[in-house]
Each structure stands twice: as C-alpha cells, then as structure tokens.
Amino acid sequence: MSDLSGLYxxxxxxxxxxxxxxxxxxxxxxxxxxxxxxxxxxxxxxxRLDASGTRVEAIGWxxxxxxxxxxxxxxxxxxxxxxxxxxxxxxxxxxxxxxRSQGAGEADEDLLGDAIAFHGxxxxxxxxxxxxxxxxxxxxxxxxxxxxxAASSAPxxxx
Length: 159
Known about the structure:
The relative contact order is 0.22. The chain has one domain: Sufe protein. Chain: A. Helix 1 packs across helix 2, helix 2 runs parallel beside helix 5 and helix 3 runs antiparallel to helix 5. The protein has 5 helices and 4 strands; from the N terminus they run H-E-E-E-H-H-H-H-E. The protein is globular. A 4-stranded mixed beta sheet has the order 3-2-1-4, with helices on one face. It is of the alpha+beta class and 159 residues long. About 4% of the residues have low confidence.
C-alpha cells in the first residue's frame, strides 16, 4: 500500500469514527432518506438553509452502514456546512465525477478536501453506491429546500 493510500484509508476510518453531523437536525427545511439495498446502508439527511436560502446553515444525518458510507457523510457534512448552494452543487458534481472515474486520473483536492480520500473507492463498483449515499441525499435535500418544500422527500434507492 502506498503512503498516500494509507493516509486516505486513515482519513476514511477517522471520519467513520468521529462522524461530523451525525444526529438528527432540529427544524430542517428538507429531509431525505436514501437506501442502498445491495448492502443495507441507509441514511436520513436533513438540511437547513440560512435566512436568504442561499447557504447551507446546518446538516444533520442519521445513518447505519459501512465505514465508507458513514465516513462519506461525515466528510460531506464538513465540506458543505456553511457553503453557498452553488458551491455545494459543485462539490456534489465533483464527487460524482470522481466516483465515476474508476480510480483513473486526478481528483480535485482543492474542491473536495478530505473527500478526495474516496478516490480509491471509485475502483470498486459495489462500494461507489456506499460512498454516494449521503451525496445523493444532500442533493435531494437541497433541491427540496430550494423549492421551498418543508416536507420530506420520498425515500429512494441509490443507483
């Protein structure tokens, strides 16, 4: 294992242990539930926007799953909390592109921060869904909150 791979593995394990954002969010503007039926990972994410509706004020999530899915939710929460919605959409798009890379190329560390640790996960098709779970949930939350919907969006299955 290369030094960089070892560092990334430690980063993923650290995020899976300390789980930034783990816990139900009080008064979310939107919530969304995602389930990965392949392995049973699931997450319910809530998001609250600032008064202008242009910035993520808070993210909270409750989930159960492998270290990859829980660490990914933690890294996402750290990156997206406080960010404006355009930046959050860039994060989601950048992460999705990285997950589709199958480990090829270079990921954008300036954009993705700690989430770059999941670049190696993209080589394993069955694990990509684990890593994407929270990102898909946040994307749905942002869409619902931006549309002014305070209701929970329907549960979906990550593909």
